Amino acid sequence: MGSPMKIRASLSGETADVKVLMRHDMETGQRKDASGAVIPAWYIQEVTVALNGKAVVTAEWGAAVSKDPYLALKVKGAKSGDAVSVTWVDNKGDTRTDETKIA
Amino acid sequence: MYKRKFVPLALGLMLAAAGVAAQAAPKAPAGGYGVGRPATEAEVKAWDIDVRPDFKGLPNGSGTVSRGQDVWEARCASCHGTFAESNEVFTPLVGGTTPDDSKTGHTKALATGTVPQRTTIMKVGTVSTLFDYINRAMPWNSPKSLSTDEVYSVLAYLLNLAEIIPENFVLSDKTIAEVQQRMPNRNGMTTAHGMWDIKAKPDVQGSSCMKDCPVSAEVTSRLPEFARNAHGNIAEQNRPIGPVRGADTTKPPTANAAGAAAAPAVMPTPAEPASPAAGLVGKHNCTACHAKANKVVGPSWDQVAAKYKGAEGAEDKLVAKVKAGGSGVWGAIPMPAHAQVPDAELRQMVQFVLNGAK
What we know:
The complex is a heterodimer.
Chain A: E1 6-12, E2 15-21, E3 44-51, E4 54-60, E5 70-76, E6 83-90, E7 95-101
Antiparallel strand pairs in A: 1-2, 2-5, 3-4, 3-6, 6-7
Chain B: H1 6-22, H2 41-47, E1 62-64, H3 65-80, H4 99-104, H5 108-112, H6 120-123, H7 127-137, H8 148-161, E2 170-172, H9 176-180, H10 255-259, H11 276-283, H12 301-307, H13 314-324, H14 343-354
Antiparallel strand pairs in B: 1-2
């Protein structure tokens, strides 16, 4: 299920400025814990940003993306009150979707 | 305000008076020297803004998370980031704490070291400190410009980002004590050390050399001359954060570096206030991020002057740029907006920079 994302979407003219802070450990699979055992890889593989249910960004991520990833994008043709939803799927099959309205 | 604070000052005055007496200077007349006047009540009130951990001195007011978000986006986000995750220059304000920490009052990550960078919320023990600091010193380029309710709102937004308070929480002088009971590191502070009590154990022990110490260190090995620039100019390879730049290895070491083991770091030197404009750049805190010859956080004035040399309309463009802030021309690190600086002074400073900062 994961921790909730923080999403801000503000409108300037016809362009919405969307900022997302995800909460994920993003383990690369290269690190070792105190006892020397490899920490298994665990990272977000797919991110989808949708405006009113229509995907505007689909991204394939890998182990190189940092812990607690920050994503910012601009969406043209948005209106106040439109729903922006962000979905991620990680390599363990876990997924999370959060939604906000454009202010 | 605290009566006790004045004791060392009074003692200092007595010592100074004793010193004057020893030099056989004329004694102060009984009624004083006839200069100065007692501070008025309004003056003391304006100066006495501290908020103590027991919330003494806390002004009445209240703020909500949603209002705080608006203020944050406008005044704070350019340096601290939309989610207080911060950018290249400043350390993150929130993160590294868990709801469990709010229950125990100890930030677990400080002990386990699982979070690589300590955030403000991980360390701070008293919510009054956050209020006091924001109220006193923020935003950096125009401190004390937030109203009391705005400070409450910004603090509420910050505490909400840190997951200490819910989104519908109304932070006020009545509810702030409740927040104190949820601060993640509220029990992580100690006063049992020499920084607090003069009789307590000091936090450092100077045990290596207490007498007959060597006057100068002997240099036993050093980098040979030919290897100094082996990796290119170190000064240019440092990240543009903080005052330490590394030595300019294209030049031979300076004389005083020969005795010391390490080459001296090139420190940015603030310009001497020679002209009125040079005083202005100090007054408006430009020198916190800019220097004449070195890149500090922002570009050096020499760089700016060289880029816009002879360019038409450069002065107007730069005045607008400084006023509105922005990023991109000199890298990703943003310059905050400076709407509080009067236009005339802004123009004077831009002229100063374009004329070689002399």
